[in-house]
Amino acid sequence: MLNLVLFGAPGAGKGTQADFLIEKFKLIHLSTGDLLRTEIAAKTEMGIAAKRLMDKGFLASDSIVISMIKSKLQENKDAGGFIFDGFPRTVEQATALDGLLEEMGTSISGMLCLCVPRQELVNRIISRGKTSGRTDDQDVSIIENRIKVYNEKTDPLRDYYSDQNKYFKIDGMGSVEDIAHRLIDTVSSL
Fold first, then answer.
1. What CA–CA distance (Å, rounded) separates 149 from 172?
2. pLDDT digits (tens, 9 = 90+) for 37-66
3. Neighbour order of strands in the sheet with 81-85
4. Are the beta carbons of 69 and 87 closer than 8 angstroms?
């Protein structure tokens, strides 16, 4: 089973690039952003709690995100693999994911990190906010806080996956297609 973690700061292009990897390698896409937005739209208890945090630029709690991921893994036990987009975001979540995958008799194959300069991240998110209508993508202070939270909480995952020889740094600049080719070449070598 091929299981990939697609990693990068907000605005790095994880969602866009996930589509290429899903098609090429026939993976099931598990986007915590999509899962959270679905919960928020349905006004579930998890969605309401997550929205309160996200509106302030913070990450949803581990318990919320892990519960959603576990449910999706159980629904797709016969999958050929998964691409985790936006999860794990902390070492604690990575450890929990390892445990969930171990229960299924599999593990993470690699963590692909899209690396993009800070100002480009801000520019991409503001541009996305203009078309998506998402208010959190239109407020520079919220965007800056999301990047700060990412750097503080999720950056340690590089070491976590590096220690397992599963960390792969990918240049996230250039055309969407060029970045996709870099990712596909890396995954093909796993």
1. 20
2. 888 888 988 788 888 877 777 777 788 788
3. 28-31, 81-85, 2-7, 110-115, 167-171
4. yes
Q: Please, which residues have CB within 8 angstroms of residue 27's CB and are 6 or more apart in sequence?
A: 2, 4, 21, 79, 80, 81, 82, 83
Cβ 85 vs Cβ 55: under 8 Å: no
**Residues near 143 by beta carbon (within 8 Å), at least 6 away in sequence:** 10, 11, 57, 121, 122, 125, 126, 136, 137
The answer, yes or no, to whether residue 186 has pLDDT greater than 90, is yes
15-30 tens-digit pLDDT? 889 999 999 999 999 8
Q: How far is CA 126 from CA 5, 83, 130, 176, in A?
A: 25, 26, 6, 18
At residue 32, the 3 state secondary structure works out as helix
pTM value > 0.85: no
**DSSP class of residue 53?**
H
Question: What's the Cα-to-Cα distance from 27 to each of 24, 145, 150, 167, 181, rounded to whole Å?
Answer: 8, 31, 25, 19, 17
